Here is the input.
Amino acid sequence: MSPKIEPSKSLRDRCAIVGAGTSQLGKVPGVSAQGLLEEAIGNALNDSGLTTKDIDGLLLRGPDEIYTFHQVMGERLGIDCTFSTTLTNGGASQVMGVALAVMAIEAGLATTVVVGYGRDNWSRVHANKENHMRASGRPQQMYGVEFGPEIGLFGAVAAHAFGAQRHMHEFGTTREQFGKIAISFRDHALRNPEAVMKKPLSIEDYFNGRMIVSPFGLFDCSLQTDAAGAVIVTSSERAKDLRQKPVLIKGFGMGNNLSGWHNNDNLTHTGAIEAGKLAYSMAGLGPTDVDFAQIYDCFTYMVLVQLEDYGFCKKGEGGPFVQSGALDLYGSLPTNTSGGQLSEAHVEGMLQIVEGVRQLQGNYSPNRQVKNAEIGLISGHGGNTVCESTLILGAN
Amino acid sequence: MTEYLKPIPIPSPDSLPFWEAAREHNLCMQKCRKCHKYWFPPSTLCPQCGNKVYDWVNTSGIGSVHSFVIYHRLYHKGWTAEVPYVVALIELDEGPRLYANLVDIEPDEVRCDQKVKVYFDDVTEKCTIPKFRPLNASPD
Here is the structure.
C-alpha cells in the first residue's frame, strides 16, 4: 500500500447523518430481509422528517444471492435515484456506504442518500434445521471448492479463530480476556430494550459455553438474527432544516489487506491500521479524542485486535485493556453500547452506525447514554476477514 | 473399502498441477523465475513481483504451524468420527502458507510455531490430500 495516501480534509463535516432507524430485532418469522429493510428505511425517514421522494441515492449491502439488490429495493420503495449500487465488501460495506454517500453528495451526484442493510439469518438459516445444515455445510467461498472443504475448513468462526490463536501465542492474550469483551457488551444489551440477549453473562457462563471452533466458544460468536438498519445522509447545510440534530461525518477511511488473511502478519494486524489512520487524518483527530467506539464484533477477538489497530492501546496490549473494564459504559472507552453483534443483533455493522448516531444525538436515558459523547468511532470489518472501513462521527 | 464421505476437491485450471503432484506424493508450488519466491494458492502470475514466468517446483514439505483451530462443532457429516480435529495454517520453510489437517497429535498439544512435515493421504483412487504431522513424529 502506498504510504503517501493523504485523504482530503475538505470532506470533513461537509455531510451529516440526519436520520437512523432499525426494524424489529431478533426472531421475526414471516418477514423477508427486504421487508425488514423497508421497515428500517421507513423508520429512518420518519426520524429525519424526509420521505422517499427526497431520496436520490440508495446504497445497500445485498444478500449475495440477489442480483443488483439496490434495484430490487428501489422498486419496492418506489424510488428513482441518480447514485445507487449494491455493495459487496462484507461487513465493511455499511460504513463504506456512508463514506460513498458523502463522496457522491460532494461530487454533486446526489443530495440525500439512504444507506442500509437487512438480514433474515435467523428465519432463513436457524428456524429450519434443513436450511441450517445446508448453510453451515457450504464450502468456504475463499477459494471455491478446494483448499477448504476437503480439509474440513468451513465457516467464519474458524477463519477468525486463526487470528485469535496467533494473538494468544504472540502476546499471551487469554480466553478470559475475550470473555470480558462478551460480558461488557452483554451488560450494554441489558440496558437496551431492543437487544436480543436479555440475561446477564458471567465469566463462568462464558467458560461453560460449548466450544465451537477453538479458541472460540459459543459466547465468542455473534448472534444469528433477523434485523435491519438504515441511516440517511445529506449535506450539513441541508441538515440544518431537518428534524434531528445533525450528526456530522468528520472522517472516514478504508484498509483492505486483500493479499489475504493468511498472509504476512495479517492475523494480528488488520486493515483497521490503515483505515483508522486515514479516518483520523480526515477528521483531524486521534484516538485520545474518541469518546466511544462501535467496533465490528463478529467475534470477540476482532474487537480486541481492532482496538489495538485503532491506537486505543498498544499492539499486544488489547487483552489487559479490555480486562480493565475500558469497554464498559462508564469505562475509558465505552464500546458497543447497544450490545453489539454479540448481544444486540447482527446486521453486519449496520446497527452500530445507528447506535453511534443515537449516542451523539444524546437522547438516551442516563443508564444508556455515554457521558459527554462528542466523538464516536465506528468500524466495519469483513470480506474474508481483511476488509475494513472506519467512520468518525461528531456531535458538533 | 468404506465409502469416503468428505468433500473431494474440485481443482481449478490454475490449481490442477498442485493436485496432480499430490497424487505423486509431492507438495508442489509455483516458483517465480524472476524473484525466485514461491507462492500459494495458485494463480497465473507472481503476487510478489508480477512476473508471469514460473515453474512448478516440489517443496520440502517441512514447515511450521503459523496458527491453528480445533473444530469441536460438526459442520459436515464427513468429519463425524474425527471431531475434535485440527486445521492448521502451515508456513512452509520455502515461504508460502497453506491450510491443512494436522494429525498424529492430540489437538490440545498443538502449538503455534511447532515444526511439521507433510504426508500424503490417498483418500480415494483418484484423490490424494496433503496432510501434516509433527516433524518429530514423522517417519523418515
Notes: Chain B has one domain: 16-137.
